[in-house]
Amino acid sequence: MSADLGRRRLLLVEDEPDLAGNYTLALERAGFDVAAHATAEAARASVATRVPDALILDIGLGTDAEAGFELCRELRAAHPRLPILFLSARDSELDIVSGLRLGADDYLIKAASLAQLVARVHTLLRRVETLSAPAEERSRREVGPLTLDEDRLEASWRGRPVELTVNEFRLLACLVRYPGQVRSRAQLMEAAGLVLDEQTITAHVKRIRAKFVALDAGFTGIQTVYGLGYRWHPRLDY
Fold first, then answer.
1. What is the DSSP string of 183-222?
2. Backbone phi, psi, residue 166, to 5°
3. Is 4 part of a structural domain of the chain?
4. Does one domain contain both 143 and 58?
5. Distance, C-alpha 54 to centroid of its chain
């Protein structure tokens, strides 16, 4: 355990020593306190002693090809707000969907860079901080004619409700959070905590824009920056 009680505690469950060492070093350099274990049993004991700020785990541990799935299920039930990130070489859609359905917040393939791993962990922790903030600090946001209620996942434009899915609301909230700044599809996906491909992000944005246009034919709030991504128009005098 780190002597610095201000550092975020991460629990890493990885049975390959070289990989565990690389991940631990990268995360510690990023300012985290990392407890690394090779088995589900050791991870359970660690959580019983101290619940980490986030959990990073592989699916296959030792001879048990599904140990990570079972550990995720158990810890999600015991700690509903614990951020969980799967880090696995298994890149099939079935494995990814299975991990998310079991309660993981994110799923990263081991082929990703260490920088991506660090970024994903930061994103998970920022989300927890947002959810932990007092409701009056995070519930309603007004940007010109747009009103977002992040507690209720509701949006309105010029006083009229915009019927958005949960994923659409998250993507819109990410754009509005950085008015005038171009956000790539990958950045939107990461910030919204979604595991989708870029074509799906594009389709979501098109549907969001169409819903606003249906309410206001002159809507220009979501702008496409070709080759880069999207941005929320910073003007407040639409």
1. B-HHHHHHHTT----HHHHHHHHHHHHHHHHHH-TT---E
2. -60, -45
3. no
4. no
5. 12
